[in-house]
Each structure stands twice: as structure tokens, then as C-alpha cells.
Amino acid sequence: MSQLPIRSSPKHCGIKQGGYLKGDNYNYSAYKKLFYFISSLVLSLLSLAFILWLIFRPSKPHFNLKESDIYQLNLSASPQGHLLNSTIQITVVSNNPNHRVGIYYDRIRAYASYKGQQITVEAALPTFYQGHGETNLLTALLSGDWVPVPPSFGDQLLLHGQMVILNIKLNGRLRWKVGSWVSGHYHFNVDCAAPMPLDLYAVPVSPPAASSLPTSTSSNYRGLPCSIDL
């Protein structure tokens, strides 16, 4: 059987000098252009997002205590300890200082505390949307029934003389709205110091089995600023 000679063609398989295929250079150039395009697109989007953030970055909402009324503040002593019954009405002003950003308040709770101790249960306030530059009044009736307090609680109130400072606390979750875009949830905490005048002339220093501390005390404020953590 005769053997046929095999000749190599100079164009066989598109081989060029150096051992590379002709298509390799084309693929490398295409990948390089695609990489540059994606990099430029991502950089442009990041730059746009940063510019929009500078323009629309939201400022914290403002809260001011407008009014607080103590309807009941009764301290009872028993073998189990001292128990406090309280009823407090509050009015807080909420303002959105942003001109391009709205706020969704998806959860709001309020309670009163004295010297770091919660003296009422949390009250739920209605959820709402606050538009650009809008102001809303938030009212809540806070109450606490048979809340355990230290034996020195009554004496601490008496030491303040005719003024006691309660703290009105609000907390919850909000979302920012810019155009049709809505952010995720952000947790916020509001603390309002509420100076309350007391009439203690009939209150003994050591309360008996049932002592009535000041009742029907009202305080009106001209926008007493509250602190907010967001």
C-alpha cells in the first residue's frame, strides 16, 4: 500500500506566526471593550447615585413637645412593694424639614418615664405619611396601672419641690420617599423632656397605704425641642 504525502497548508487552521489563532486577537479586543464598557457604566451609575444622594440626602425629622397633662399620679404602698398608677396626655409636633423627601412612619410607640424608669405602658400612635415640609400633631394618652417602682420613688418626687421632669419617649420605624423610590426601614428614638409643675403641699414624705401625688397638672410648651436618634 502506497503512502500519500501530507502537505501542510500555510493557511491551515488560521495559524499565524507565534502560534496564535487569528480569532484570538479579535476575542481579546472584544472582551477588552466589554470590560471598559461595563466599568464605565458602573462608574457612571455610582457617580449618579452619589450626586442624587448629595441633592436628596434627608435631614432628620424634627419633634417638639407642645403639651403634656397629668390626670393621675397615684402611689400605693403594699407588702409587695410600691405601685404607681398614672395617666398622662401628650401632644407632640412632628415636622419634615426636607423639601424633596417624604417620610413614611410605619410604626410609632410612646411612653413616659421618670429618671430612666418607664412608668406607663407603650401606646401605639397611628401610622401616616408626611410630605415635603409638612407638620403633624401627634397625641397620645399614656397610662400605667400598678407599675412597680422603688420605695424611694415618692421621696424623689418630693425632693424636686414644685417641679418634676418626666421624659416622653417615642420610638418606631420610618422610610424615606424620593419620587417613586422608597427606602428600607430606619429605626428612630425620640426623647422629650417635660417639666411638670407639682402641687405637693398635701403630700406626706412617707406615703401611707394609698397616697395621691399631684393630679390634673397641665403644661403648655411653645415647641420644646426633643432629641432624636436615627
Automatic annotation (TrEMBL):
This is Late embryogenesis abundant protein LEA-2 subgroup domain-containing protein. The chain crosses the membrane at residues 34-56. It comes from the Eukaryota. It is found in: Membrane. Residues 94-192 form the Late embryogenesis abundant protein LEA-2 subgroup domain. One of its GO terms (biological process) is defense response to other organism. It comes from Aristolochia fimbriata. GO terms for cellular component: plasma membrane; plasmodesma. Keywords: Membrane, Transmembrane, Transmembrane helix. It is a single-pass membrane protein. InterPro entries: LEA_2 (IPR004864), NDR1-like (IPR044839). Its main location: membrane.
